[in-house]
């Protein structure tokens, strides 16, 4: 989709959503929403040697500094910060995911918290958002945001993204829509969002499902809600310090060897996601390795390295005969998230497929 086409689509979304609001982020009685910004690091908290340097250190700026850089937040929300981690999102892991989920669930349960905004690196933001979308147990708004340029950069995109994220988290219309991601004036659902560009500030897309809504400073328009069950409607939860089962992603390609599949199983993987070619396919030797893995009790999900589309059961490969799970429209990284959580509930292949059909 071209830049012009994307802008035209965004304009059409705004035109389609004629919703009247009282005032930006302020309730009928003039009470400001109480929002907690939970920081995890990332480029949005990054610092470089100069305003035009391409390289930078992620997570170098604390949450209170991020909040102080956007004083305009005070006009519509009472904001405070919590620092959960200070990492580049390439180093996001199970331990931080669980810690983050436990802390956000704790905050959401407090009567003096109306919503949560989370600052996060963009590299794995879609995975964290989807993980939280499955384990948070509240209908209060939760909004992730990040940036493609560090905080010290010329024309840094972080401050406005934080402003918009807090604005969405303050908006009562965001309630019950699951975990959201706000970036570059767009509002995405956690399940649909994908990072598609290495450096573009418009890196995030929700290609087939479409946007949840759009922002323009203090104006927000919501156009849809996610179709799949999430948050309070899932069976998944985590507790402090809980370990999650190992799930590896195996990337398919021409001449794909079975060795990596065998190695993942030998090293303790309880589940595998094959990022297959085309409609979730793989080489014949790889299929044989998948059979060996399944015989050892490993759950195997067929996804695709292709950016869009649905992996349906028994197409390309016979899932019923092979014993595999079809990822539907989840990409490999999100299929891995759901399989990890699914394995905390069941090791039954049919039940795991039900999870992929529903969540």
Task: Give a quick precis of the structure.
The chain is α/β, with parallel strands linked by helices. 29% of the residues lie in helices and 19% in strands.
CATH superfamily of the largest domain: L-asparaginase, N-terminal domain
The CATH topology of the largest domain is what?
Rossmann fold
Helical run tally: 10
Low-confidence segments, given as residue ranges, are 14-23
**Largest sheet entry:** 8 strands, mixed
What is the CATH C-level name of the largest domain? Alpha Beta
Shape: globular
The helicity comes to 25-40%
Give the strand content: 15-25%
What CATH architecture label of the largest domain applies?
Answer: 3-Layer(aba) Sandwich
Tally of DSSP β-strands: 14
Strand order of the largest sheet: 2-1-3-4-5-6-9-10
Mean pLDDT: 91
**What structural class is derived from the secondary structure elements?**
alpha/beta
What sequence of helices (H) and strands (E) makes up the elements? HEHEHEHEHEEEEEEEHEHEHEHH
Radius of gyration: 21 Å
Question: How many domains make up the 3D coordinates?
Answer: 2
> How widely separated are the two ends?
27 Å
């Amino acid at each position: 989709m071209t830049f012009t086409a994307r802008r035209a689509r965004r304009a059409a979304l705004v035109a389609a959503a004629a919703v009247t609001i009282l005032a930006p982020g302020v309730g009928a009685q003039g009470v400001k929403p109480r929002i907690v910004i939970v920081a995890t690091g990332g480029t949005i908290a990054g610092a470089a040697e100069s305003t035009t340097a391409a390289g930078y250190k992620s997570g170098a700026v604390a949450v209170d500094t991020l909040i102080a850089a956007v004083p305009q937040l005070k006009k519509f929300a009472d904001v405070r910060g919590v620092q959960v981690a200070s990492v580049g999102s390439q180093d996001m892991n199970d331990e931080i995911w669980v810690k983050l989920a436990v802390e956000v669930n704790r905050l959401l349960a407090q009567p003096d918290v109306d919503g949560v905004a989370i600052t996060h690196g963009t590299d794995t933001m879609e995975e964290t958002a989807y993980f939280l979308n499955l384990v948070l147990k509240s209908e209060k708004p939760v909004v992730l945001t990040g940036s493609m340029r560090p905080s010290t950069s010329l024309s840094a995109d972080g401050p406005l993204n934080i402003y918009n994220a807090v604005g969405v988290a303050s908006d009562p219309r965001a309630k019950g829509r699951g975990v959201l991601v706000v970036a570059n004036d767009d509002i995405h659902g956690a399940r649909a969002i994908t990072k598609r560009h290495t450096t573009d500030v418009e890196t995030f897309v929700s290609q087939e499902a479409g946007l949840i809504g759009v922002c323009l400073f203090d104006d927000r328009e919501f156009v849809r809600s996610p179709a799949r069950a999430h948050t309070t409607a899932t069976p998944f939860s985590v507790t402090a310090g809980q370990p999650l089962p190992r799930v590896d992603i195996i990337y398919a390609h021409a001449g794909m060897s079975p060795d990596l599949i065998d190695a993942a199983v030998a090293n303790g993987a309880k589940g595998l996601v094959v990022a297959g070619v085309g409609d979730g396919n793989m080489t014949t030797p790889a299929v044989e390795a998948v059979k060996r893995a399944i015989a050892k009790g490993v759950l195997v999900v067929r996804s695709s390295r292709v950016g869009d589309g649905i992996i349906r059961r028994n197409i390309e490969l016979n899932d019923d005969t092979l014993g595999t799970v079809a990822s539907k429209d989840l990409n490999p990284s999100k299929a891995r998230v759901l399989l990890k959580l699914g394995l905390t509930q069941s090791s039954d292949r049919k039940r795991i497929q039900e999870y992929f059909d529903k969540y």
